[in-house]
Amino acid sequence: MRKKVTVVGGGFVGSATAQRIVDRELADVVLTDILDGPPAGKALDMMESGPITRTDSRATGIITASGDYSATAGSDVVVITAGFPRKPGMSRDDLLKANYDVVKGVVEQIVKHSPNCILVMVTNPLDAMAQAALKISGFPKHRVLGMAGVLDSARMSTFVAMECNVSVENVHSFVLGGHGDDMVPLPRYSTVAGIPLPDLLPKERIDEIVARTRKGGAEIVNLLKTGSAYYAPSAAAVEMVEAILKDKKKILPCAVYLDGEYGIKGLFVGVPVKLGAKGVEEIIQIKLTAEENAALQKSAASVKELVAVLGLRSNWMIDRSLHEEARQMKFGISIFPLVLFSLAFYAIPTYHILSHRDLQPALKVNIDSVCTLVGTFGILPCVALASLNRRLAALEKGSSLGKQS
Ligand SMILES: NC(=O)c1ccc[n+]([C@@H]2O[C@H](COP(=O)([O-])OP(=O)(O)OC[C@H]3O[C@@H](n4cnc5c(N)ncnc54)[C@H](O)[C@@H]3O)[C@@H](O)[C@H]2O)c1
Questions:
Q1: Protein residue closest via CA to atom 18 of ligand 1
Q2: Number of other residues whose CB lies within 10 A of the CB of residue 85
Q3: Total-model pTM
Q4: Residue list, ligand 1 pocket, CB within 6 Å
Q5: Which residue has its alpha carbon closest to ligand 1 atom 10?
Q6: Rounded to a whole number, what is the distance in angstroms from the first to the last CA of the chain?
Q7: Is 179 among the residues known to form the active site?
Q8: Segment 356-371, tens digit of pLDDT
Q9: Closest CA to 81 of 153, 139, 33, 141
Q10: Cα–Cα distance between 118 and 121 in angstroms, integer?
Q11: CB 272 within 8 A of CB 251
Q12: pLDDT digits 0-9 by tens, 175-232
């Protein structure tokens, strides 16, 4: 059976993403939007290209304005591109809140219908929206990631290939950090046919490439006049989707929830990760110079500011994302013996009542009272112990995820 991908938001990025998935026959695609007509029209148009591009992937377009997401049920991967672009007079915080509301409504519905999916966030501001999606979904952290680094690295590779006049296939670029002006392109780790950039180009040329990469999105916006880039963003999102669907274990720079890696805790920031069927299967930690690390911390601080505007608390999120799996792992096993142990104390008084056994009255009252008391007060520590156990399971799970990552 073919895999299923839902693309939420049938605008420029969403429809290009859907088309690339269908063209490459990676999965059947459901394209959703709040607009009536365009998603269905675009999906049918994609299907009609199938006989020419030779793909049997099915595309379906649905309107979700009424809140009906049933057609998305059972998706393996969900790419979220829904949101508003920044309008004149709108502050960055206004945009942040408007898109948060969109992402909240979308993620709540997606989780209901595809509880096991992997969420790939595209909506801007990317890192904050990924953080919001983790909180709203309650998913474990390895099933929520954001697309930015693949795009930013592709932009850098394009400029390096243009500068060196070589095939883009020879170039490998490395960009870390948040998806903003203070992203962190790393020339030391960027190579042309394996040769590090500083060995190939003078510092001034590298600095220009770094600066152009940082402004890559704005350069396209200025040229387009309306809207923002979508060819490269959709290609980047699909590279991540493909790595997941085909369990490729591909190392790609993605926005992921860091829990101490790179000295950053409780935030989504772009770092290299291994992507496979489980989502984020490992966070790759590379050695940074003091200068590179300072740039990464500065970029993370910008993400933190946005997250603070939304009032997303990171500690709470760690608990919740781990809770889902911890609950399945330990809760069921630990609470029942404890509760049974306490309930057992009710057996003696119950036996006395049912059997009308004529014990010596004073003795009977004492035994029954003690047992009832122990049973009743036993339940309370049982519940406390069970909840402690649950918490321990969450921590245990956290450290094992930490080891994986
Ligand atoms: N992460 C990145 O690197 C990157 C790159 C490019 C664009 N983006 C972001 O991706 C988003 C989409 O960009 P675009 O160019 O496709 O914009 P667009 O305006 O063309 O498309 C957005 C679509 O979302 C739809 N939408 C709004 N609310 C919705 C909801 N609740 N449910 C479903 N659909 C809804 C709109 O009707 C519209 O069709 C923007 O936030 C943009 O900033 C991110």
A1: 11
A2: 14
A3: 0.80
A4: 8-14, 32-35, 64, 81-83, 85, 102, 105-106, 122-124, 126, 147-148, 151, 179, 227-230, 233
A5: 123
A6: 31
A7: yes
A8: 665 556 665 677 777 7
A9: 33
A10: 10
A11: yes
A12: 999 998 899 999 999 999 999 999 999 999 999 999 999 999 999 999 998 889 999 9
